[in-house]
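Ligand-bound model needed. phosphoric acid mono(formamide)ester.
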Amino acid sequence: MENLISMRNLGVDKINSLIELAENIESGKVKSDMTGKVMGALFFEPSTRTQLSFETAMKRLGGEVITMSGTKGSSLEKGETLSDTVKIINQYSDIIVMRHPLEGAAKYVSECVDIPVVNAGDGANQHPTQSMLDLYSIHKTQKSLDNLKVCLLGDLRYGRTVHSLSFALGAFNPEFYFVSPEILNMPSYILDELDDLGIKYTQTDSLDNIVDDLDILYVTRIQKERFTDPEDYEKVKSSYVITPEILSNVKDNFKILHPLPRVDEISVEVDKLKCAYYFQQAKNGVYMRQAIITKLMEKCA
Ligand code: CP
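Prediction:
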């Protein structure tokens, strides 16, 4: 692995190998050492989990972190290009982790530098490290990634986590349910790619008659910041609120995941149920990000 930009074409072998490495790092069987290495963390969009879990991951591996949060205070404010900025970060660090509002930004940066680049979210496009920690969480709770019934619910149009995850899980013969208000349906370019890959899915706007059969319910926030027309947001906000009542007949192995942050789509009453896995999922992000840094730095050691 030279970069991690998208889940497209990552492949089953690389996914399994990252999950195994994350397991071994979590259990202490593998000790990866990044002493003397520096991670450049460039976050041009807000983040809590991705930024802080990457920083935690690098520090726990013994490495150092330099951070840019937004453009304020940097020479981007004086008109320096992204290309020149990352060529400079290239001189100071051994790996770049970047979140950017523009789709394709991480791929572009990977072509400007000669160190590994990790896409920490590019606009509404992809969020592959989130997908890898999602897969790790699903594997931990289901003991397998194969043949699962998985519902992706909420903002499927702008949600980069669900775009990435549909490709990631697609390699493991899932039965997908895509549940969203019509204006937030999964984009047709994603559905076309899933069709080409022979991945089965059902699209609907209601969770009724689905939830009791599921292994995984993956809930996402309706993202106010992605709407160009505020009236459209008002029409669909709070479309789904998961409550304990909805979950009264779920399967024993059933788990709820959410990339977080949440607004109101999962009631806080759900947090105490055994199927609520989203806080543990965020913790799993540190182990998976330690595994991703380790794999990408193998060639640089
Ligand atoms: N899941 C996720 O990407 O969270 P942050 O936006 O807080 O990084």
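Residues 7-126+285-300 form a domain with the Rossmann fold fold (CATH 3.40.50.1370).
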